[in-house]
Write a structure and sequence with these properties.
The protein has about 500 residues and is an alpha+beta fold. The protein is about 50% helix and about 10% strand. Strands 1, 2, 3, 4, 6, 9 and 11 form a seven-stranded mixed sheet that branches. Strands 5-12-10 form a three-stranded antiparallel sheet. A two-stranded antiparallel sheet has the order 7-8. Helix 16 crosses helix 17 and helix 16 packs across helix 19. The longest helix is centred in the middle third of the chain and has 23 residues. The chain is globular.
């Protein structure tokens, strides 16, 4: 009898779930709901297996705003570059909140302690401190100078390593990732930072982000979890040592250390998790972007030759390897190549939680596609309810053929002013370039990312003839979807031939 009752109860529960799924629909004025065919899971399988293709298909059907039902939750997907995203980022009336999205990520990826994770005031204090340093010109210049010095020492004529690779085939992604990572760690955190010690573990951690984000149990994600623990052990020791030897810490690291020391989180257990998240924020997007930047440049002989002429133009006469760096960082073509690289390879998804009933003005998709430049298309208002999640996948913006003809093709001069209207459309009135997010959580590392990419490209082309042995590999679109810059699908073998005659000759 008990078994029968349990069976009846189980069947009843299944029937209730199925009935609920059948009754799921959008209320009047709400975005169209894509609920999928499987009770409770909804559209989860299609979304997780092929997220980019799935979302592009739904946008073609339902426009710039629609909702998907995934494992008991409704998530609104927005890609309206004309009206909707501007409202999200400006957050009128405080209708949207980012805390739930970031606390979710911080808990899964970096294992934040709950009290620290939920302390919004502390998170804001740390974010403002980091943003202030990386967006203040004199402070950024100091970091940039140290970055250049450190990177140059790894590839110039005095470098044992770089001498050892002369004429040797290397994978450009591995080469770029290793040397720029270590140079950047030196510049941001100082010589006492355990960048060398944590590098291999950090690679394992970063290569397995999806296991953390999907909530895999430890037995399914053991190696990445153990790597994260070893990283945090080194970072904990760094915090203790920096406390004793404060004068050695760089300003960037020093401000973070001081912020922890002056808070209720003096205990070292919170510092390593935050530092891991900071390394992730400053490196997991900028390092792949810097690789793609040099890869696309050397992969196209015309672009490579043009960049070499720019480097020669800004070389300071009478010096061996010094340049007008401000001119290089501001050069329109160098900047255009960087913007095109981040447009194509950045695959970030940012999120907001709706905390009060609100209405979004959304452009009519078909009318927007047909609209002439400068003409605002008609719009519709859609209601969002408290507790719903709003996601902004930038791939829907960056790979939109209406904004960027041939969107999956890297075109270095796409963002030059003279190419507006041909290689880019609607640049003045649409918001289709968002690799750094928006609003209060605009990525503070966006300025440093350009510095890193240009610095690496200049020094590599100055010291080496970089000869590709295969075409530039395609993007691994399924990798890290929504969590950062994409990696290459396979190696990119190149031969590094040290220049015996300076470029200025």
């Amino acid at each position: 009898m008990a078994i029968l009752s349990l069976s009846t109860l189980g069947l009843g529960a299944i029937a209730a779930v199925c009935l609920y799924h059948l009754q799921l629909r959008s209320a009047a004025g709400e975005p169209k709901l894509v609920k999928g065919n499987i009770p409770f899971l909804g559209a989860a399988i299609a979304f997780l297996r092929y997220p980019g293709e799935f979302l592009e298909t739904q946008r073609a059907k339902y426009g710039y705003l629609f909702s998907i039902y995934v494992a008991g939750r409704k998530m609104a997907i927005i890609s309206d570059p004309i009206y909707g995203m501007r409202q999200i980022y400006s957050n009128p009336g405080g209708a949207f909140n980012t805390d739930a999205f970031f606390t979710f990520v911080n808990r899964l990826l970096f294992n934040y302690e709950e009290k620290f994770n939920m302390d919004g005031e502390m998170q804001d204090t740390l974010r403002h401190a980091v943003t202030h340093i990386l967006s203040t010109k004199p402070k950024l210049n100091l970091i940039s100078a140290q970055l250049r010095e450190s990177y140059k020492s790894r590839v110039d004529d005095t470098s044992d390593f770089a001498t050892g690779v002369d004429g040797v085939e290397v994978d450009l992604y591995s080469f770029s990732r290793l040397h720029l990572y270590k140079a950047s760690m030196d510049a941001l955190f100082g010589p006492s930072f355990p960048g060398e010690e944590i590098y291999d573990d950090y690679v394992i951690f970063e290569n397995n982000l999806n296991g953390f984000l999907r909530g895999y149990p430890r037995f399914m994600n053991r190696a990445p979890c153990e790597s994260r623990e070893r990283i945090c052990a080194h970072l904990k020791q760094y915090y203790v040592d920096a406390d004793k030897n404060r004068s050695e810490a760089k300003e960037f690291a020093g401000v973070i250390i001081d912020t922890f020391h002056n808070s209720v989180y003096k205990d070292p257990k919170n510092f390593p998790a935050y530092m891991l998240s900071l390394i992730f924020a400053t490196k997991s997007n900028s390092l792949p972007a810097a690789f793609w930047y040099i890869a696309y440049i050397v992969g196209d002989p015309t672009t490579r030759d043009h960049v070499i002429e720019i480097i020669k133009k800004h070389h300071i006469t009478g010096t061996k390897d010094d340049f007008d760096w401000d001119a290089l960082y501001d050069d329109p073509f160098m900047v255009s190549c960087f913007k095109e690289t981040t447009r194509l390879t950045s695959n970030v998804t940012t999120g907001r939680t709706v905390i009060k009933p609100t209405s979004l003005k959304i452009a009519d998709h078909a009318a927007a596609v047909a609209a002439k430049p400068g003409v605002k298309p008609p719009s519709h208002n859609f209601n969002l309810n408290p507790g719903e999640t709003v996601l902004i996948p930038v791939s829907l913006l960056h790979w939109d053929p209406e904004a960027y003809p041939e969107p999956m093709q890297w075109i270095g001069d796409r963002f030059l002013d003279e190419n507006q209207g041909t290689l880019t459309h609607h640049q003045d009135e649409w918001t289709n370039y968002r690799p750094w997010g928006g609003g209060n959580h605009l990525c503070p590392g966006r300025f440093l990312a350009l510095v890193e990419a240009v610095t690496q490209a200049v020094y590599m082309l100055w010291y080496f003839d970089v000869v590709p042995l295969t075409p530039v590999p395609p993007l691994d679109v399924g990798d890290k979807w929504g969590s950062g810059a994409l990696r290459p699908l396979g190696d990119f073998p190149v031969k590094l031939i040290r220049r015996t005659t300076p470029l200025t000759a």
